[in-house]
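anyone seen this seq b4? input:
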Amino acid sequence: MNYLLKLSGKYITEKYKYIIFIILLVCLITVCIPRFDRADYGPVKHFAGNEELYEGLPFDIMIYRNYIEYFRNGTGEDKITAPYSYRVLVPFLASLMPFEPLTSLNLVNLIFLISGLLFLYLIMCETYTGFQFRIAGCLMFIFSFPVFYYTTSGYIDGTVIGLMLALIYFIISRKRIPAVITLITGVLASEKIIIILPFLIAFIYSKEYKTTGSYVFVFLFLLIYSLTVFLLRKYAPGVPQSYVWLPDERFFSQNIFRVKAYLSFVLTFGIPGLIALFSYFKFPPDKRKKYLCFYTGCITSLLLYAYSFFSAWADGRTVWTIYPFAVPVSALYLEYLYKQKTGIA
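predicted toks r here
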């Protein structure tokens, strides 16, 4: 294994790096195919969990389908409810495609996740991860339960993950104008994009970028997020509902005894989550501080999942938000172990 790593690092040219990335894209698409449009081909049909259906679809997906149809023909506003009505980006983009609503939605998710894979690679470039371990990180991301199970099954989380990865890259590369544009786009996709804020604050602290410009950017982040959320809640079409991530004992009573809430957590947390958790206790203190922003993101994602027990339908889609933070730090830890083992400085 050591020999192969050294050999690949020595002889892989830029041309072959592009070929490898194309192979990664093919792998990503292949992993997403079995659940595309909830077809659940072959044995996947027996693996997919039973869900309560409305008009043949889970409730969230039914609302997104209604939203796409609303954008296409201007009717059915009474069939769109909050908070799904505030997640305008994916249904709008899907409405522009000449396919069935669910197919269009899943294609949007797939496009954003493909771009997210590129940004994941760029994040690992920014953290100076070696090429072999950047590929290892991409493979961890691709061959994971949430990419397989959630990306093209009718939800919007694939798009959210792609935008999170883009925003993280623009933050750590200090490209603030693209970061602002991505933030606005992310809020239009889902309110979950707010979990990038603790990452941003920890990044400024750990990298010692404590300048006036950095503090202004944090304030700008909060202002843009709050203003966009306000405008969405005021002007987005649809019927208002009380359910907008507010704690409710009904959600807790539904989630606490639901086996799928725990099983989907374990499957989604997966190898990237375990390696990231293990790395925190094994990295020397200087590296823990250096990568503090990624650990902060992981903790924020786990707290969001815990909060969802009281305020939403708790499942692996919420835990999936840990991947933009866990995968880069996992790749860094694997490289650290390799260097420790081989004596490379």
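The first strand starts at residue 53 and ends at 54. The chain has one domain: 23-342. kinda curious what u guys think
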